[in-house]
Amino acid sequence: MMNLVLRRLVLFIPMWIAVSVLSFVIVHATPGDPAASFVGQDAGAASLDVAHRRLGLDRPYMEQLYHWVAGSLTGDLGQSYFLGRSVATAILERLPVTFSLGMLALLVGAVVGIPLGTVAALSPNSWKDASTIGVSLTFLSVPEFVVGMLLIYVLGVELRWFPIGRYAPLSDGVGLWLHHLALPALALGLSQSALIARMTRASLLQVLGADYIRTARAKGLPEKIVIGRHAFRNAIITIVTVIGLSLALLLSGAFITEALFQLPGIGSLGVSAVLRRDYPVIQGLLLVSSSFILIVNILVDIVYGLLNPTISDR
Amino acid sequence: MSTPVIAVSNLNTSFWIEGKWSPIVHDMTFSIAPKETLAIVGESGSGKSVTALSIMRLLGGELARVQGQVLLGGRDLLGLSQTEMQQVRGNQIGMIFQEPMTSLNPVLTIGFQIAEVLMQHRGLSAGAAEAEVVRLLDKVRIPMARARFHDCPHRFSGGMRQRVMIAMALACRPKLLIADEPTTALDVTIQAQILDLIKQLQEEEGMSVLFITHDMGVVAEIADRTIVMSQGRAVETGATSDVFAGPQHPYTRTLLAAVPKLGALGAGRGPRRFAAVNPETGETNDAQEMPNTVAPTTVLEVKNLVARFDIRSGFFRRITSRVHAVEDVSFALKAGETLALVGESGCGKSTTGRSILRLIEPESGSIKIAGREILSEPRGRLQSMRRHAQMIFQDPFASLNPRMTVGTAIAEPLHIHNQAARAKEKVADLLSRVGLSPDMSRRFPHEFSGGQRQRICIARALALEPQLIIADESVSALDVSIKAQVINLMLDLQASMKLAYLFISHDMAVVERVSHRVAVMYLGEIVEIGPRAAVFQNPQHAYTKRLLAAVPVPDPSRRGERRMGAVEEIKSPIRAMDYVAPKRQYRVVSPGHFVQI
């Protein structure tokens, strides 16, 4: 088990470098000149040259790449063209918002999805099963922004139960924080819950057909224990894996949800950076979000190993 | 007669299949006296397991209907609520199953899984339960029981897991143990140990046993009384010795005729067909010995074959040890001859078979098929060489593509080897050769039974008219009567087509029946090789003797002759990196009969 974790951690370094190179190449391969938007449409060639020099865009491509990758390894993601701050600071300021939103959405997904999936699996092909599948299909097929807009309209505008378009950090108190994040987390979490419900159902159904469930019943254990202890412990291994992998989906959903609810997270930072061709910020965001996915994958592997004794032996 | 422990009367079980109730078990009536062992024997689909699960009421909810009466200690189990039934299961009736590898929960420790029963039914505290579990593990002879309490199932072998299952089933000292094919998935020496253990514990605890099996040898070994089941009905019931000595029902006679009996061939030279019994009339035509098919030409010559697999571990995934799957194996096979490779799981017999077709790349050695060296052939030329040697696998369900008609599957090798011209006639001819009708070629595999599918696999293997067939456990998954038919077919084909068989099997009784010569493998090496009669009548190597002693003999009058020693696991051929395989020496016992010193 320790070996597994160590191997994953060591492999993280080359992957980080690869991701870092990739984010540079992707950003610089896109057409357009950031200096142009910096000095304005009507500026002459001379002022464009000055802008190039100031932004470091006049230096050779490979040198710029090296500079970026080497900097990213030490946590220096460069300076934003427009924000007047370092990219790292700009991202760190906004990360808690996105993180809060993501975690709350995940909580919604798990709290709604796992019980729904369990109910469906315990009476397969019944009306309960059919309605669960129906509900989850609806959540999966309706995009987050539609759910979000409905929530804003009904609970925010009409009923005025929740504030819209504002954010309160955790330091203002848990109640306030939750109150402000409830709707976006719901909008983002419901599609997650659909995914988790379907995975829970499939995984639990498979486990319920296993020989060791028959053994547990033959031992005279009450059905509660057969399901809760024997079936669920095995089913959760698959569910955790899926939840981990779906975090990537959650991240892209968070960009849209933040824009919709006007939350000051990295999503809205990203949108404005793209519109202004703020290369360093785009690169930094690409790097941070890809590393997040890398880290989640490692965590999933570790949790998987902890839950599954045949893995932890290796 | 004392009051029976359990009395089953008019048990009828039906399953809800495609909108109607289909009866699976009809009118089963039997009882089991205290300390008695009753065996229910039958082939797959006979309803024997469903009978057991009906008694335990473990059949899935609304899709199964159980009627009749099952009296246990004066109560009708079929009338109990689920909660009352939970107090019977694991407490008054213990049950063990066929698949030790999957019957234990992989994420819970074995100790906890046994303790659970004690805490549930006897209300023991966790501490008291642990002490009792250690005692139970000792009782089923798990070495170092206390230390192994906290291990999860994957650290145990199949035999050890079945011991854990037994400890679990017996934890609350039930009056009745239901054992559903408990040894079927185990190697023969392990099977013998588990059977001994069940018998011994039964004497100690004074419980009754309902033993469900397809194996007549096991029945003869363990049961006081026997019920023979066929198509959901009990066709014959009686004392085990009577059933074996004077079977009344034609089906019982068919079954008994199809059971290979170790030592039945005596000093005869060649293979012998199974007697064919007409299931309606019960008429038997005698088993005849096959004419001599062995020709002087050598078809296959294997010399100093070595196959090893790397085991990697640690941070850098370095090779830390190796499985010495096949170690310095040499033998030859003549046209029309059958050489059997026998041994238990992990002995390297299948790896040897696969190496010959280079489905696995062996490490060194030499393999000549029809005089041509196989191991030096470039990969691209392997296809043409594989024409001469074909393989038949164990699982007829998994080895046919479900989306390909049988005709296409049989013709496929012809297309690959550019012989498509007469493919249609060829397929028709092959199907009739293996006892199927040529018009079946347009059907899909799922329309056939297991035995028929194996015939199809044989037809496919024969399509290119190979000289050599490697049959890897080809009849092991088949029911005994079907097994006998397929073996008869293989013997007939050998006689008509002068086929050489490399017959890989773990079943000593079948091997005795089909082979001219036998090679016994153990830990990747051939420990004994020789003419069949010599190896079976005069075994020299300790392992050969052990293997032969472990085979249950389907003759109740010879019960108790077989005795196994202490708990012993099959050893593992995993060796350290620096292990150098010792050069083995062989002693000549008689002409052609060699034994490892």
UniProtKB/TrEMBL annotation, chain A:
The keyword Transmembrane helix applies. GO terms for molecular function: dipeptide transmembrane transporter activity. Pfam families: BPD_transp_1, BPD_transp_1_N. Keywords: Cell membrane, Membrane, Transmembrane, Transmembrane helix, Transport. This is ABC transporter permease. It comes from Microvirga alba. Residues 95-304 form the ABC transmembrane type-1 domain. The chain crosses the membrane at residues 9-29, 101-122, 134-156, 176-197, 235-261, 281-307. SUPFAM superfamilies: MetI-like. PANTHER family: DIPEPTIDE TRANSPORT SYSTEM PERMEASE PROTEIN DPPB-RELATED (PTHR43163). It is found in: Cell membrane. GO terms for cellular component: plasma membrane. Belongs to the binding-protein-dependent transport system permease family. CDD domains: TM_PBP2.
TrEMBL record, chain B:
It is found in: Cell inner membrane. Its main location: membrane. It is a peripheral membrane protein. It is an enzyme of class 7 (translocase). GO terms for biological process: peptide transport; transmembrane transport. Its EC number is 7.4.2.10. Pfam families: ABC_tran, oligo_HPY. It catalyses: glutathione(out) + ATP + H2O = glutathione(in) + ADP + phosphate + H(+). Residues 6-256, 300-548 form the ABC transporter domain. GO terms for cellular component: plasma membrane. GO terms for molecular function: ATP binding; ATP hydrolysis activity. SUPFAM superfamilies: P-loop containing nucleoside triphosphate hydrolases. InterPro entries: AAA+_ATPase (IPR003593), ABC_transp_ATP-bind (IPR050319), ABC_transporter-like_ATP-bd (IPR003439), ABC_transporter-like_CS (IPR017871), Oligopep_ABC_C (IPR013563), P-loop_NTPase (IPR027417). Keywords: ATP-binding, Cell inner membrane, Cell membrane, Hydrolase, Membrane, Nucleotide-binding, Repeat, Translocase, Transport. NCBIfam families: PRK10419.1, PRK11308.1. The complex is composed of two ATP-binding proteins (GsiA), two transmembrane proteins (GsiC and GsiD) and a solute-binding protein (GsiB). Part of the ABC transporter complex GsiABCD involved in glutathione import. Responsible for energy coupling to the transport system. Belongs to the ABC transporter superfamily. Glutathione importer (TC 3.A.1.5.11) family. PANTHER family: GLUTATHIONE IMPORT ATP-BINDING PROTEIN GSIA, TRANSPORT ATP-BINDING PROTEIN. This is Glutathione import ATP-binding protein GsiA. It comes from Microvirga alba.
